[in-house]
Write a structure and sequence with these properties.
mainly beta, Porin, 8-stranded antiparallel beta barrel, 1 helix, 10% helix
Length: 187
C-alpha cells in the first residue's frame, strides 16, 4: 500500500511544483560617478578630460538559475552635465555571485553600446564638438545587501572604448549608488 500511495503522491508533487514556475528578478539602480572621458583624432594620442561628476541609471534582469551564480542582462546610461564630459548608453551580459549567508554580491559585466565624448574648443584651430562611437564596455562591482529589496552599490569600476574612422572615444568611471529589487508577487 505504501508503494501505491508513493506512486500516486510523486506525480501529484511534480504537478504542484511545475504549477509554480520560478520567477526571475528585475532590479533598477541609480548611481553617482566620477568619470574621465577621452578622445583622439587621426589615431593621435588620447586626450583625457579631468574627472567629471555625473549620474547613472539602469536596470537588470537576472534569469532564474537555481545556483548561487547569476546571469542576466543589464541596460544602463550615464550623463555628465559638463561641457567637456560625455554620455554613455550600454547593454551588457551580467554575471554575479550571491552567497546564501553573506551580504556581499560581486558581479562582472561585458557589453557594448555608444560613448559620446564632448571635445572642448582649442582657440581657432579646433571647434568644440562631440565624438560619438560604438564601444566595448567592461564593468566590475560589488553590491552589499541592506534589506530584502535594497542593496548598496559599494563600488563599480567601468571602462569603455571604441573608434569610428579616425576618431576614438573612451571612458573610465568609479561609481556608487543604490539598487532596488522588484520581487514577484505571490499569486
Amino acid at each position: 500500500m505504501k508503494r501505491l500511495s508513493g506512486l500516486i503522491i510523486s506525480p501529484v508533487l511534480l504537478l504542484v511544483a511545475a504549477s509554480h514556475p520560478a520567477q526571475a528578478q528585475i532590479s533598477v539602480y541609480g548611481t553617482v560617478a566620477a568619470t574621465n572621458y577621452g578622445y583622439a583624432f587621426n589615431n593621435d594620442n588620447l586626450t583625457v578630460s579631468p574627472d567629471h561628476f555625473g549620474v547613472g541609471f539602469g536596470g537588470f534582469y537576472n534569469f532564474h538559475i537555481q545556483s548561487r551564480l547569476t546571469a542576466g542582462i543589464d541596460l544602463r546610461g550615464s550623463v555628465t552635465p559638463n561641457s567637456t564630459g560625455g554620455d554613455k548608453a550600454v547593454i551588457s551580459a551580467r554575471f554575479g555571485f550571491v552567497p546564501h549567508h553573506n551580504p556581499l554580491k560581486p558581479y562582472l559585466q561585458i557589453g557594448g553600446g555608444v560613448i559620446q565624448a564632448k571635445v572642448p574648443g582649442f582657440t581657432n584651430i579646433v571647434q568644440a564638438q562631440t565624438v560619438t562611437t560604438a564601444a566595448l564596455d567592461l564593468a566590475l562591482g560589488l553590491d552589499i545587501r541592506l534589506t530584502h529589496s535594497v542593496d548598496l552599490r559599494v563600488f563599480e569600476l567601468e571602462s569603455g572604448a571604441g573608434s569610428k574612422g579616425s576618431m576614438s572615444a573612451g571612458s573610465a568611471s568609479l561609481s556608487t549608488g543604490f539598487v532596488y529589487h522588484f520581487h514577484p508577487m505571490n499569486r
